Structure formats: C-alpha cells, structure tokens
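Help wanted!
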Amino acid sequence: MGKKIKSAITPTREQDYPGWYQEVVKASDMSENSPVRGCMVIKPWGYAIWENIMNQMDELFKKTGVKNAYFPLFIPLSYLEKEAEHVEGFAKECAVVTHHRLEPDETEGGLKPAGKLAEPLIVRPTSETIIGESMAKWTSSYRDLPILINQWANVVRWEMRTRMFLRTSEFLWQEGHTAHASREEAMERTLQMLDLYAKFVEEQLAMPVIRGRKTPSERFPGADDTTCIEAMMQDKRALQAGTSHFLGQNFAKGSGIKFQNEAGQEEFAWTTSWGTSTRMIGGMIMVHSDDDGLVVPPRVAPAHVVILPIVKKGGDNRPVLENAQRLKDVLEEKVYHGKPVRVEIDSRDIGGARGWDWVKKGIPVRIELGPRDIEQNSVFMARRDRPANAKESMNREDFISQITDILDHIQETLFNRAMAYQKENTFEMDDKNKFRKLFQKAKGYNNGAFVRAHWCGSDDCEALIKKELSVTIRCIPFDSPTEEGQCIYCDKASSRRVLYAKAY
Amino acid sequence: MGKKIKSAITPTREQDYPGWYQEVVKASDMSENSPVRGCMVIKPWGYAIWENIMNQMDELFKKTGVKNAYFPLFIPLSYLEKEAEHVEGFAKECAVVTHHRLEPDETEGGLKPAGKLAEPLIVRPTSETIIGESMAKWTSSYRDLPILINQWANVVRWEMRTRMFLRTSEFLWQEGHTAHASREEAMERTLQMLDLYAKFVEEQLAMPVIRGRKTPSERFPGADDTTCIEAMMQDKRALQAGTSHFLGQNFAKGSGIKFQNEAGQEEFAWTTSWGTSTRMIGGMIMVHSDDDGLVVPPRVAPAHVVILPIVKKGGDNRPVLENAQRLKDVLEEKVYHGKPVRVEIDSRDIGGARGWDWVKKGIPVRIELGPRDIEQNSVFMARRDRPANAKESMNREDFISQITDILDHIQETLFNRAMAYQKENTFEMDDKNKFRKLFQKAKGYNNGAFVRAHWCGSDDCEALIKKELSVTIRCIPFDSPTEEGQCIYCDKASSRRVLYAKAY
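Answered by r_m:
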C-alpha cells in the first residue's frame, strides 16, 4: 500500500465537502466574513477574479450593442407594494431603510436612528422595477427601440444561512434589461444572451454547462420563458450559473413601456432580462479546486505566474531578486488573449510555506528560481493542473516562449477534466427505482448525478420529486431530442427527457 | 451690430449659471432624477464617461501596486459610535437600515417593515471603519506591509439639496487606503496619489488643477495632512477634484493596525487614504461646456465620432447607410491612446434636431455623410471645440488618417482654453479692500476669482473670511514660494500666499 499523501486542505472533499469548500476559500485568501452578518469582505485575490469576469463579460455585452447605466441603490416601498398585490403570503427578506440620520441617544448613550422617512426605502434586491419605470419614460416611438441596458452593481437579499460567494446577503452581479419592438427580436435577444453566458462560462471559467429552459414552476415570476445554464459541481450537484428571461409583454404592461409603431399605433414593448453574479465564482471554486486548495483557470486568474526566488537569510539575495525581476519583465511583455501575462514575485523568507501558499491560491504556474537555475539558464516549473510535487526543469527561453501555450493548455485541461467528470456522472435513466435509490443515498461528496429522464409535464410530479428526493428539474435541455418515453415518477407518456439533479 | 446668435441651451451661462448646468446635463442625456429623492439615474451617455474614468484611473492605480477589494455595503452602528465619542453635537446624515423584512400591513394595507434588527446598520458613507478593521486583521508583521487597497463602490450621505453629479445622496467613488511601516513611505504614498490624481484630471479630463495642502481647519478629520487638487469652474468658483490624506498613526491607533517590525518590536502602522468621485464629472461639465451644451474631452468621451448619414424618407438609403458603416469600420481600426476609436452612427430620420442632439451630447467630432460626399470621396466634419456651424469638407482618406490627431488636438485645445481661463481669473492681491469688493459683488456667472493672497495662519481670520465673504482657503499651493507679506484680513505677518476662492 502506498503512503497516504497528506493534502494541503483539511477536511478533504470526501471527508466533508462543505467544510472543504469553506477551507478552500479561506486558504486561498479570496474572501473572509465581515462584522456584518451575511456580508463578506472580498479580498484582492477574490476581487481580481471578479474584475476579470466583469471586464471580459462586459466586452462581450458591448459587442452586442448593450450599454451600461446606473440606477439608484434604493427602491421606494410603494414599488414593491404593486408587486406584492399579486403574491399571496408575500414576505420579502430585504434591507429596509427607515431613517436618514444618527443622533446621540441621551437616555441610553451611544447613537440612535433619527429623521424618520415618510416612506421607507428598500435596498435594491434587483433594479427591475426602477429600470422598468425609466424605460417607460425613455420609450415613445419605435425609433427609441431597442433599449439595451446593463448594470453592474451590488444588491441585497437578506439571508439567514450564508456561504461565501454562493449565498450572501449582499452580492455583486450584473442585470441586463432590454426592450424591443417585436416578440421575435426579444426572443432572439433572450437566447443570444444565454448563449453569451454559456460561451463565457465554458471558455473563461472552464465550466461546461447544459443549456436549457426552466419548467413553468421554476420560471422567473412574470417570465414567459426562463432559459438557464447549469453546471455540475464536484459533489454532482447542479449550480445555475446564469439565467436569461423572455418576459413577453408582461413586464412592459406592469411598467407602462409603450411605443408608437411605424404605423402610428401604440403597442407594449417586448422585454428580456438576464443576470449573473459572484455566485459564478462559487461555481468555479467547486468545479476545479482539489484537496490542495483553489484552482483558478488562467483566463480569469488574478495572476498567471508566481516567481519564487530562492533567498537566504543574511545572504546577498540581490542577484537572484534582480534576475527574478528580469524574468517578470520579459514574461509581462507576452500577450495572453489580448492582455499582458500577469506575474507576481514572492520573495518572503518564510520557508516552504511560501510555495504552498501559492498552491492554495490556485495560481496556474509557479516558478522556483535559485542561483543554480540562473547558472544553468533554467527555471523550475510547476503547474496547478498537475500534482503539487510534479515540478519540471525547463530551459528559461523555452519557458518564456511557451508561457501562453502553457496557460492555454492548463485552461483546456481544466475544461476537459470538468467535462469528463460531468459526462461520467450523467446518466439516462428509465427505471424509477434506480432513480429513487440514486438520490435517496445521495449525500456529501456523492450527492447524486445529472439524470436525463422523462417527465410527463405535470407540476404535481415535479413537486413530488422535489419533496421526496430534494431533486429538481434543472432544465429541459435544448439538446434533448424528441423521444417517446414514460415519466420517471408517474409512468405517463412523455416526449422528451429533462435534466434532474440536486442543486445549490 | 451682429445678429444675436441663438444658443442650443436656455438659459445661457450668463443668464443663469445653475439653470444652465441643469439644462446641459438634461440635454446631453447623461442622467436624470430618479423617483428616490436625492438619487440620480446615470444614463448610458453619463455612465460611459464614468467607465472611462474608472478604467483609466484604475490602470494607473494598479501600476503603483494598488489592488482592488470589496467591503460590505453596511456598517454596524457601533462602528460609528466610536467615532461619535470624539465629536461634539454629532449628527450624521446617513441611511439607517432598521428592519430586514417587508410584510403585508393588515391594518393600513400595503407593506410594512418587519424583522427589526438588534443593531441598526448604516449604509456606508465611506468604508473607512470597516477597512480599518480588516487591515488590523491582515497586519501582524512588517512582511505584511505595505497594504495598498482601493475600492470602487457606491456610498450614501443623506443630502437635502442635491445637484446631479455635484451632490447626490448616493454617489459613485473610489476610496484608497494604504498602511505602511514608516512615516516616510506613507507620506510618499500620499503625495504619489495626489500627483496621480492631478495628472489624471489634467490629461484625461483636460482640467488644469492647483495642487496644495488644506489648512488645519479644512483637513479631513483625523488626518495629519490633507492634500488636494482644486479646479476653476467657468463661474470662477473652485471645485475640489480629489484629496489625498496622510493620516499619521491616528487611524492605525483607532483601528488597531499594529505590526512587528524587523527588530521584533510592535508598532502602529502609518496610513493614508485618498478619493475621487462622480463629482469629477460635474467639474468636467462646468469647465468645458458652453451655451450649446456639453463638451466632453476625447480621452473620456463615450464615443469620439458620430456619423450622420443623410437619409431621405421613402428613398433608397442603403448605399449611404452601407457607406457609413464602412467608414465606421475603418475608423474603429484606428487606435487612440491604446483603445479603438469609438464611432456611433445615427440614422434617425428626424431632420435637423439630429445634429443638434450630438452637439448637446458634446461628442468631439460629427460627420455628415450624403450621396454627394460619397461621390466626391469627402466627409463634412464639425468639431465640438469650434462653433457648431463651423463645418469643413475634408478628403475622406485624410480624415481617416488624421482622426487621432484631430482628437488629440481637441483635447489639447480644451485644456489650453481652461488653463487660459484659470490664469485670466487668478490674481495676486494685497489690498484688503479690493479683496473684499471682489468677493462681495461675486455672484452667478461672475462668482469671484482665484486669489493668491497672504494669510497669517490663524483659524480666526480664516473663519471670519468664510463668514463674511463665503470665501475659503482652498489650499496652500505647493507652488507658492516663501514670501514676506501681510494677512489679507488682519495685516499680521505672513510668509506665504494661499489660494482663496468661493467653492462648490
């Protein structure tokens, strides 16, 4: 029997998947809990990933004609009252602003809220209502359409149980809202944005996704159609990584978005909305990371290469530090997907912990550089997609000339690995007992699978499966062919398989 | 006498400067008031300017080693209580969150706040306190320093009287916070960031600024030194366009930012903070715009060129539209300061209003393109730094090859014009009666001047000048030489001139 290899992260994925997740986030220095319950501090290593996501996604949005705007943080209470009218047992978890001043509390000491607002304000859970009102104001003629707006912002939805990046009371996201003169154009935009999300998540985050549409019961309230992308985490649960909604004329009717068409008649606009959030980072962590910590795909990595000069306490470290700087400079002249390669130097004199810090941060490439490497014109290289101890000596010029290929190769490896994992854990299933057994015993790291099985189309079957097995229909995949079969729950006739899984 | 030329904006600057400002913002389609009192909607044309500012400033920050992070929107009330202890008559205008749920109001109808929080939360007026707490957690050894953090975010300071971009309850800004192991390093960083701001504002926003330090009474609370940049608006009032504070060890003592130095002793860190906001856009508007509306410097313009194809209702407009698209494509291959030239096509069939729309939006270059221009291989070009009717025919290839030079020339013209204006309206003054008279009659468009005059250094003189004339010492300019003189208020001896002005 081989020696048990100790991993850098305790617990491991097998031992305790949620505990492992928490530890990966902490050890990578991406974020930490804040003194405000349910809100996190996103530290530079975590925020840089979000910046890379924002910058690259934003560029893709703009290529399709979308423009960014910014709407107020606060929503008047009355805006939500309209919404509440249609919802039985309405209760919304959100942050409510009731005062606009702090004054000394003469009786209790400290400060107390003062200056009560005539109408409470809500910290936006989305900007939907207020964007709707603006669009109504901006639209009078067909000439004003389409309106293609996106907002990058913080939103708040009060949460009792939170997990960093996956569910926090405040989170960062983008919400896109578009208004069109025709149904066809709005439907096209809905699918265009879903496709953009899917490509982005697959190409940049190296996360393979299933594209599809939600069942009526899982649709966004007010949407005629909700499309989504679903990714498989390593515990085989699904994470919804983005949604794009076709809202028909419902939203336009609610907000009064009307226009005069070319024939001079008044019509309601056709609208869409679509969003992604910092949750994608939670997905990225759970798809790629291992028992040594975070693994970041090069396309969104805060830095691509860290150089670890071998320094000696009390010795003259200047030559090796200068040499490391020269290596950094020449690497940063290389262009990786339109931007310079990003290089860090870590010259802390803290021994072996230094290299492990960078393993746990998930940087794609680590370079050790000592006097002997310099003498031999070589570098000692390790890749994060390989075991931590698999280091290789490379000729320095070869490394420099190959760096962007190495990064591309790591990106590809991560995607292929995730795709293979998804395939291995996706099954077509027609036996209802097998289906039941699979999900009944699902837990921890082995939390089920992606199951493509038949569904009769009834809300009841869907609800019962959810109740009995905690399994939901993640989507009706676009690639699911028409095929005769029987509902996995009730045996009634079905014409198409849907995607069942446990989900985040 | 010449014919009176009608301007696109009513009122003009001379007629009603604040009214003109409001009208310029509205006519340019940059922003509009929102249903939430004191908050604005930043529309795409306004937000794109902010994006250009963010992207370019962020790049400059990162070159100096600064990294971005994100801190919670909410601050616990207790964090501000600590601050309040030191402030007599403390009252803070801010948004106070007291509840975390909305529920149906059974008696009154509608919704009511529910789920009262044990401790109220404040919507951040700055993230200073919470960043201080994080820094204290992150700092234990000299090896952890410097910490160089910046945040781009929204903040809220409740305001009763608001003006778009200049003063709104919610605004967008960046706040930088750094911690260092030595006084010298922190002081150097303070000045480095002020210098970065000054260069950015001068080079990108084409606004000449005066660099200097605030008097003790105008310092940021808790700062040992506050440095600032001050720009002259067209009404001759000053606008502070950015500040950089040297906080000594005060802030570190308040937040507990301690570290062990190389000798093993515990010390408090030396910190700085520095910030700029969407207020810069208000300054940019007031420095460059004219009675025809907004003027945007090319370096931050949402678009550089608009092509206005001459279309005919009912005619076959395809050839001219296709030709316009080809012109756009070839212009967008040109690189202006590292990024492609940004081109819009406006093919709306709304007559002469179309061209004026773009004048009022302040786009640097307008191109009219009709069948005859295409035939003659020419374009009809107008520049926003020249009168609206000063259009010239140019050879198409010449225009394409010269576009980036034209943009640079416009940028230079705007800066030089603003600099000349600042110089014309800046005086050295030693006569206290002249000084008094100048500011007593100041109002509207002729709201004083920048006056370099002596100050004895007493808080009293400063306060009396402010009270009697609404004039403040904007800064003690760095370029002010040592020079013997007498205080403009009390005649006592002074060794240096300071900068007096009315201010926004």
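OP: Thanks! One thing I noticed: The CA atoms of residues 309 and 321 of chain A lie 6 Å apart.
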